[in-house]
């Protein structure tokens, strides 16, 4: 079931005429386009340090954006994307469920991965296969194969997926899983996908090695595709993942810088993998850099939206199901979107953010502040903005069932409740 | 590279750089350090930081690099002085002085040793952060500390050993006929830039796994290790910094523009992980009562954990210069046999050293013991182990050493070491005679000298 605020949103949306929804959304996206530009410049500059004179400008933009959010909030709280999006997908046939559509390309996914994880030692083999049990959502490979098919049609290439594209779908899941194994050790989590984490069962030392092995197997499969540009694009992901994890260690004193830091971290930890995998499958079928950019932008925006919704659910999902907050991020000392927005209304949160919710009662207090504020709504609004951007980009591709499925999938990402 | 940077800073530490560097520490948990076991080092840092304002962000970016160096070296010095000179088997080297000379002579041949990739890595914000946090581990038994110390201490000629060999073999092979003359213009001291990058990547990977080897199983934690929270923190830092080095190796690898090389080195990483995994599971049989591995298995596992990276890097260096399959095969062979010889040599050190009074200890997986076990059989080995135990059920290593020495285990290991040294020599003979080739020959023959 959806959290309480979701239902509230639905009620709100009926109060709007579509025209006014469009009007307001356009006004906001005009401003926020600037935000996306500044916060996410071209790939190359990501690794270098931001120049000091560039920083204040960025902050200003984010300030504008967030303050505009504040102003528009009362009118904007409601609209979900759903009503407007479904209307504008132009295909006569009903949009196919993305899961069904992608299924044919994903049936052998986990078997293929297990074949890549070739180890003689039985125990290590078991550890490496542990999470490839078919119980994961495999959302990344799904996006990759749908994008690959949409791109193939866009590039006038009929027929099946290219072998390299299929490999990239597999590699995206492998890289994701390897990073999960390491993140779980770092965060000390004991449960994942309904079972004990690897380090909980076999100890940290073996868990780290299993993660390393999955990564090396992914890198090997990547090299075997034989396209050096693809290798470069996906190696960047590995670097982004680690840098994102490092960013999570530190928090910024300054509020606006903190928001930029959060979005940048979100890109690196979640969106980079999706964005660059989408880009990689586009490189294999189409030489046009504009097409690569469409694929990358879709992946980036849908990835950020995905994570923002995840951060919202950390506050809302537990609340409706168990009657108490899961607030896992707070417990880890992490200030995600809802907290950062709430901090604008309740400056008391600032000190707690800086000490990473480490004092007694911090987590509970912060959680209450967040629910009293409109941090959750604002974060969801931001997620919808990114979702809309994703849809805007993927629309530039030639219509196809797979393209429409990607649009549908984006909507599902935004409305999911677990 | 790493060693050089760190030793450089030790020199600069007393000067201005050191002071400014320490100042940057203001940003982070100074109070934490201050009340940490009253260390004078920390007090000094706090005093120095007092005069700088934490909002001075320019200072941070400009000096974070120096800070990293100074913190690591300070840390390492402290760690060393407070805990005596327990030698780390990972860094132990065959016939120390001889080896040092051979490797440092070899360094001169390849010109400047590296392409500064690891420098960039070390100077990054990420690792500066780690260096700062690692200070929290002082006083605990987290292995990340001794790994960090190893970068400064007796690692001088081991940490870079792999890189130097990759550079030497690149130089010994020279430019290939298949490569265009245009490429040859980029060569410095007869080595292509891509080969220098490769040497660096090899070192990054090796270092990454030194760090990941030091992850602690928290379930085995005991009070004597230090606070559990700190051990958790040490793990976190070790995972992150190892991953960071590995990620940089991955991007560096992609920049080499050769998917075959990416494939080779990725498979070497896979080998290394499997080798270390085996090491781990062997180590858990600490009482030595379970069936040990036989010599053949030992060789296979040692190749994975100590040889695959060097062998495949040597091969990749040939691939980068577009040398044919045969040169690639020989380079691989040299790397393989050299690493096995090197490992045998360091395993043999406790057995050949005549030093008295040193606290003796060796792994029961050391080559001479593995040979010994196979020679005397499992049953007698168990008896001998029992006899070597003291009243408090501790192993008396000097007794055990005498037992191993009395049989053929040690001499068989020496023979095997010489065999691998000779095989390495043989492989390198096919390359044209040159200064670089003689350096490689010297290294190979040093490995089999005792």
Structure description:
With 418 residues, chain A is mainly α. Chain A is built from 21 helices and 2 strands. Chain A has one domain (4-70, 96-415): Farnesyl Diphosphate Synthase. Chain A has a two-stranded antiparallel sheet with strand order 1-2. Chain A is globular. Mean pLDDT of chain A is 78; it is low at 1-92. Chain B has 450 residues and is mostly helical. Helices cover 69% and strands 0% of the residues of chain B. Chain B is built from 21 helices and no strands. Chain B has helices at residues 2-12, 16-24, 30-34, 40-49, 57-83, 96-109, 117-122, 125-134, 143-152, 161-173, 181-184, 193-213, 228-254, 259-283, 295-320, 325-352, 367-376, 378-387, 397-406, 409-428, 435-447. The longest helix of chain B is centred in the last third of the chain and has 28 residues, at 325-352. Chain B is globular.
Would you spell out the secondary-structure blueprint of this structure?
The complex is a heterodimer of chains A (418) and B (450).
Chain A: H1 4-14, H2 18-39, H3 44-47, H4 54-76, H5 82-88, H6 98-106, H7 109-116, H8 122-129, H9 139-154, H10 163-187, E1 191-192, E2 195-196, H11 198-202, H12 204-225, H13 228-249, H14 255-285, H15 289-322, H16 328-331, H17 337-345, H18 348-354, H19 362-372, H20 375-394, H21 401-415
Helix pairs in contact in A: 2-4, 4-14, 6-9, 7-10, 8-12, 9-10, 9-14, 9-21, 10-12, 10-14, 12-13, 13-14, 14-15, 15-20, 15-21, 17-19, 17-20, 20-21
Chain B: H1 2-12, H2 16-24, H3 30-34, H4 40-49, H5 57-83, H6 96-109, H7 117-122, H8 125-134, H9 143-152, H10 161-173, H11 181-184, H12 193-213, H13 228-254, H14 259-283, H15 295-320, H16 325-352, H17 367-376, H18 378-387, H19 397-406, H20 409-428, H21 435-447
Helix pairs in contact in B: 1-5, 2-4, 2-5, 5-8, 5-9, 6-10, 6-21, 8-13, 10-12, 10-15, 10-21, 12-13, 12-14, 12-15, 14-15, 15-16, 16-20, 17-18, 17-20, 20-21
């Amino acid at each position: 079931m959806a959290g309480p605020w979701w239902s509230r949103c639905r009620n709100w949306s009926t109060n709007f005429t579509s025209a006014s929804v469009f009007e307001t959304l356009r006004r906001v996206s005009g401003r926020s386009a600037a935000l996306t530009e500044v916060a996410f410049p071209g790939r190359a500059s990501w690794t270098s340090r931001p120049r000091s004179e560039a920083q204040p400008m960025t902050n200003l933009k984010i300030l504008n954006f967030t303050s505009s959010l504040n102003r528009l909030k009362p009118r904007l709280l409601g609209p979900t994307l759903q009503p407007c999006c479904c209307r504008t997908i132009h295909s006569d046939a009903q949009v196919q469920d993305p899961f069904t559509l992608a299924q044919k390309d994903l049936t052998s996914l986990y078997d293929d991965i297990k074949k890549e994880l070739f180890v003689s030692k039985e125990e290590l083999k078991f550890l490496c296969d542990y999470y490839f049990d078919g119980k994961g959502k495999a959302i990344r490979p799904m996006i990759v194969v749908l994008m690959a098919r949409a791109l193939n049609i866009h590039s006038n290439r009929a027929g099946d997926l290219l072998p390299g594209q299929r490999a990239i779908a597999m590699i995206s899941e492998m890289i994701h899983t390897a990073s999960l194994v390491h993140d779980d050790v770092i965060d000390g989590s004991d449960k994942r996908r309904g079972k004990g984490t690897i380090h909980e069962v076999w100890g940290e030392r073996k868990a780290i090695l299993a993660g390393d092995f999955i990564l090396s197997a992914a890198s090997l499969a990547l090299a075997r595709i034989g396209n050096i540009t693809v290798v470069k694009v996906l190696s960047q992901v590995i670097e982004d993942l680690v840098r994102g994890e490092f960013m999570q260690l530190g928090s910024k004193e300054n509020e606006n810088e903190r928001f930029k830091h959060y979005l940048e971290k979100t890109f690196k930890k979640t969106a980079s993998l999706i964005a660059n995998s989408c880009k990689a499958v586009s490189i294999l079928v189409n030489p046009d850099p504009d097409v690569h950019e469409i694929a990358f932008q879709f992946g980036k925006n849908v990835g950020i939206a995905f994570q923002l919704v995840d951060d919202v659910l950390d506050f809302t999902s537990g609340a409706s199901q168990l009657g108490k907050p899961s607030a896992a991020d707070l417990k880890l000392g992490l200030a995600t979107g809802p907290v950062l927005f709430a901090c604008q209304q309740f400056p008391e949160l600032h000190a707690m953010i800086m000490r990473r919710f480490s004092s007694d009662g911090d987590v509970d207090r912060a959680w209450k502040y967040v629910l009293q504020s409109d941090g959750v709504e604002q974060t969801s609004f931001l997620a919808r903005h990114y979702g809309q951007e994703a849809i805007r980009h993927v629309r530039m591709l030639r219509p196809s069932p797979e393209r429409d499925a990607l649009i549908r999938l984006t909507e599902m990402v935004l409305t999911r409740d677990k | 590279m790493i060693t050089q940077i760190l030793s450089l800073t030790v020199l600069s530490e007393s000067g201005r750089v050191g002071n400014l560097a320490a100042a940057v520490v203001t940003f982070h948990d100074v109070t934490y350090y201050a009340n940490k076991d009253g260390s004078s080092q920390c007090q000094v840092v706090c005093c120095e930081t007092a005069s700088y304002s934490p909002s001075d962000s320019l200072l941070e970016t400009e000096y974070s690099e120096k800070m990293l160096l100074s913190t690591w070296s300070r840390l390492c010095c402290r760690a060393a002085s407070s805990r005596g000179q327990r030698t780390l088997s990972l860094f132990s080297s065959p016939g120390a002085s001889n080896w040092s000379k051979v490797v440092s002579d070899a360094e001169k041949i390849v010109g400047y040793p590296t392409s500064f990739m690891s420098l960039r890595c070390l100077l990054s914000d990420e690792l500066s952060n780690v260096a700062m946090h690692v200070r929290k581990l002082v006083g605990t038994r987290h292995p990340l500390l001794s790994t960090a110390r190893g970068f400064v201490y007796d690692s001088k000629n081991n940490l870079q050993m792999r890189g130097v060999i990759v550079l030497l073999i690149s130089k010994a092979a020279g430019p290939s006929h298949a490569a265009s003359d245009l490429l040859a213009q980029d060569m410095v001291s007869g080595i292509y830039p891509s080969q220098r990058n490769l040497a660096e990547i090899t070192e990054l990977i090796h270092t990454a796994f030194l760090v990941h080897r030091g992850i602690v199983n928290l379930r085995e934690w005991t009070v004597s290790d230090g606070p559990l929270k700190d051990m958790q923190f040490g793990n976190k830092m070790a995972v992150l910094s190892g991953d960071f080095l590995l990620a940089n190796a991955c991007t560096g690898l992609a920049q080499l523009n050769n998917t075959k090389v990416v494939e080779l080195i990725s498979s070497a990483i896979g080998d290394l992980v499997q080798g270390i995994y085996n090491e781990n599971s062997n180590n858990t049989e600490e009482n030595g009562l379970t069936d040990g591995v036989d010599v053949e298995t030992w060789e296979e596992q040692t190749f994975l954990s100590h040889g695959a990276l060097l062998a495949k890097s040597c091969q990749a260096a040939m691939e980068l210069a577009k040398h044919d399959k045969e040169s690639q095969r020989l380079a691989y062979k040299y790397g393989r046999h050299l690493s096995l010889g090197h490992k045998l040599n360091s395993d043999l050190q406790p057995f050949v050293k005549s030093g008295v009074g040193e606290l003796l200890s060796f792994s029961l997986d050391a080559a001479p013991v593995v040979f010994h076990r196979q020679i005397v059989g499992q049953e007698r080995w168990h008896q001998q182990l029992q006899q070597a135990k003291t009243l408090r059920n501790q192993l008396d290593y000097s007794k055990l050493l005498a037992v191993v020495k009395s049989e053929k285990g040690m001499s068989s290991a020496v023979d095997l070491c010489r065999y691998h040294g000779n095989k390495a020599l043989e492989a390198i003979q096919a390359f044209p005679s040159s200064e670089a080739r003689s350096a490689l020959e010297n290294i190979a023959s040093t490995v089999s000298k005792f």
